[in-house]
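Journal club side-thread
Mid-discussion, someone asked how the predicted structure for our own chain would compare to the paper's figures. Pasting it here so we can look after the session.
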Amino acid sequence: MSKLLLLTQRIPYPPTKGEKIRQLQVLRHLGESHDVHLGCLVDDPRDLEHIPVVQAMCADSYFAVIDRRMAGIACLRGLLSGEPLSVTFYRHRGLFAWVRRTLRDVRPEVIVVCSSNMAPYVLDLRGRECVCLVDLADVDSEKWRAYAQSGTFPMNRVHAREWRRVAALEARIARECDWSTFVSTDEADLFASQHPAEAGRIRAVSNGVDHAYFDPALHFIQPFAADRLNFVFTGTMDYPPNIDAVVWFAEAILPIIRQTRPDAAFYIAGSNPAPLVQALTATQGVFVTGRVPDMRPYIANASAAVAPVRIGRGIQNKVLEAMAMARPTVVTSDALSGIRAIPGREVLLADTAEAFAAACLAAAGPEGKAIGEAARRRVLQDYTWSECLRGFDALLDRAPLTEPAQAALS
């Protein structure tokens, strides 16, 4: 099998958050046809125990352990260097040396980099003989632009700087790498509109969902009282778009629902709840679980899953997972972006607090079962991982299209 260098900004296991879910599936898929040499960072001490699981999937691997607090301080050097702070945060001297040795000694035929933050590890090192694909997943600079425009001083200035620096890095990736890939056609089309000269080398490779794992036919223990309406949001709860989503639901949507159903409850299930999220427990009917060993019992037993996302990029895995579990799912337009589900038939769509509350009550009613079953059918038709990730195969089999500078590997 051909040799492949894979770089991810976090250890791709366990699959507890969106980027790790995609990266684990990419690792498994590419490992079927390549000898994978994986370099990644570990920024959560709880993930150290999972290193042997990932090592078993690879021909070779390097796990760069970073302390998030110290990395946060060190990343301020980016203010002096002109680099994105998110790049300096994920810079690790040992990983850089391992990448250099791997490119020099192993000479992989293929390089796959997951996220723009990791691209600087190879941009100045790779040679002409290998195909280089950067899976950007989302147009990350647009996320920083949204933060800059919606934030307040002084963080809006920091976010505006990050927007400009990340956009410049994305432009370099588009120019110098053979392929730039995204999780949805919406993201790919947006990036192509920003870089029209490189549009021919920009592709969408959709996220999927593990439909055998997220299977409504499995039995799950009830995690909350079943004699009331229970709405569930799942996700990493220190991520700003998720924070905004649950605060909006708890403060603006749930009170409207409780006017009709005073017993309605809102469960926020996910790791690392930020202080703003934790404070929501003071709101009647709101429960914050923190990290849970398995999201499926919460989804399977919910009256409906909700995704009131107002700052969204790419595909929302939480929506695909709820659909796979045959749960009626209420989404905003941002949460539905990139997912081919029919509003009113396979999901319920609403963008105002009043409409969202009404949709939640409808999802918890008689029509919810049919919507959930239709959602499951959509997942089986369009969102199995094996089908989605075939999009990488055709790209990696093609000869390089760019002429990068000769690598300095000696």
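Post-session note: Residues 303 and 365 are 8 Å apart (CA to CA).
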